[in-house]
Design goal:
The structure is a single chain. This protein is of the alpha/beta class. It has helices spanning 8-19, 53-63, 66-77, 84-97, 108-126, 136-145, 163-170, 189-194, 239-242, 248-260, 276-288, 306-314, 345-349, 363-371; strands at residues 5-6, 25-30, 154-157, 175-176, 179-180, 185-187, 202-206, 209-211, 213-215, 221-223, 230-232, 264-269, 293-297, 318-321, 325-328, 331-335, 353-354, 357-358. Strand 12 (264-269), helix 11 and strand 13 (293-297) form a beta-alpha-beta unit.
Length: 394
């Protein structure tokens, strides 16, 4: 193992060819780390469009009442390695099981109110519009539109925001998200299973729901323009149960069927693989289909991407690219530059590797790399990214 290394040039040369291959079935898995790469702060300061889990927790705490903050803190301190998602899970669990009793002087009604307050704060934070001008989402769409494809790009995301929709609509790129209609769009599972739209239509599957989804009088999930409600699968102990109900069951079935198709490639960005109900599905399908592959671009080092690394060590079809090394074909190793694949490759290398650090774990860098993949000469480098603020992204 000590003498083993991975050459980033070799793997990115191959990845660049795959990214420009219009005959390849390509899917994208976009997680919560993606919008963190967009800076909306003033000059010289960093403010992510949508914060990571630590930043989100701070905003939620500021909006809770004093008594709710006290109970939140007591729950958080009662078990190790806790964060907003785990506390929310415990709050919901207590609301279900406490019955007529009390804990921390909170009743069942109080815990339910705390859960609702946390969820409302999360909803407000993620309800952001995509900034005007160049951004990673618009560059991702540029890559999608810039290649004549035999198969449609399929985007799977756990995010509730509408940033992908913003980017697609600004570029006038047609897409289908499983809903049909306008005033109160209804979910049509048969259209997902048939998948018979033209290849230029992007498929957008929101695995955990979205802003704008709500339940109608019949209990059916509909998509309503400018809705203030949201049918979201918030992180909690009941997440798995929620994903078994419509429309989520159809969306997860589409993820499964896509991976089981011959010769498919999934690119993941901003996704921690901490969601067991998704990671287990990915592992199961990739093990069953040796012609499929997953390229996971992770922001942190190998040591800090334990969930992704463990999956890659179990399945050779999963490649994990981290800042200091990678797991490829089941082999974990650090990066080491070798012989460049072409004479001018050093210009392209600057897009993904600098100062002995692999850069494509940053969604901004990955989107730019994809957008310029069809060009023989790389464009000007993007402005330096204050990457340290993104530590802890999940």
């Amino acid at each position: 193992m000590e003498n083993t290394s991975h050459n980033p040039d070799q793997h990115m040369f191959g990845f660049r060819q795959l990214a420009t291959n219009g005959r390849k079935k390509i899917g994208l898995l976009i997680g919560a780390g993606a919008p963190v790469s967009i800076n909306v702060g003033d000059a010289g300061s960093w403010k992510p469009l949508i914060p990571n889990i630590a930043g989100l927790e701070k905003i939620v705490l500021d909006e809770l009442s004093e008594s709710q903050r006290n109970v939140y803190s007591q729950i958080k301190s009662s078990f190790p390695d806790s964060n907003l998602e785990k506390v929310l899970s415990r709050v919901r669990m207590l609301a279900e099981v406490i019955g007529e009793g009390k804990l921390f002087d909170f009743s069942e009604k109080d815990f339910s109110a705390l859960s609702e307050a946390i969820c409302n704060s999360i909803r407000k934070v993620v309800a952001q519009d995509l900034p005007l001008g160049a951004n990673p989402y618009s560059e991702l769409v540029s890559w999608i539109n810039g290649i004549n494809r035999k198969y449609a790009i399929e985007i799977f995301t756990t995010n509730y925001d509408l940033l992908i929709e913003n980017a697609l609509e600004r570029a006038k790129t047609p897409y289908f998200d499983g809903f049909s209609g306008s005033k109160s769009a209804f979910f049509d599972p048969s259209s997902i299973s048939k998948n018979d739209l033209p290849p230029r239509w992007v498929r957008l599957w929101k695995l955990h729901g979205s802003i704008g989804w709500e339940s109608n009088a019949n209990g059916e999930v509909v998509r309503v323009p400018d809705s203030k409600n949201a049918n979201m699968v918030y992180p909690s102990h009941i997440k798995y149960d929620q994903t078994q109900a419509a429309p989520f069951s159809s969306l997860f079935e589409r993820l499964k069927n896509f991976i089981l198709e011959p010769d498919t490639l999934i690119l993941s960005a901003g996704f921690s693989f901490a969601d067991a109900h998704i990671s287990s599905r990915l592992l199961e399908c990739l093990m069953a289909n040796p012609t499929a592959a997953l390229f996971a671009f992770q922001f942190n080092s190998l040591a800090h991407e334990k969930a992704a690394k463990e999956l890659a060590l179990k399945c050779p079809g999963i490649s994990v690219f981290c800042s200091d090394g990678a797991v490829i074909n089941g082999v974990e190793a650090k990066w080491k530059i070798g012989t460049p694949p072409t004479k001018s490759w050093h210009e392209i290398r600057a897009e993904y590797y600098k100062d002995q650090k692999f850069l494509l774990g940053d969604f901004l860098r990955l989107a730019r790399f994809l957008a310029t993949a069809g060009s023989d000469v790389s464009q000007d480098a993007i402005p330096p990214v204050q990457q340290e603020v993104q530590e802890g992204v999940v």
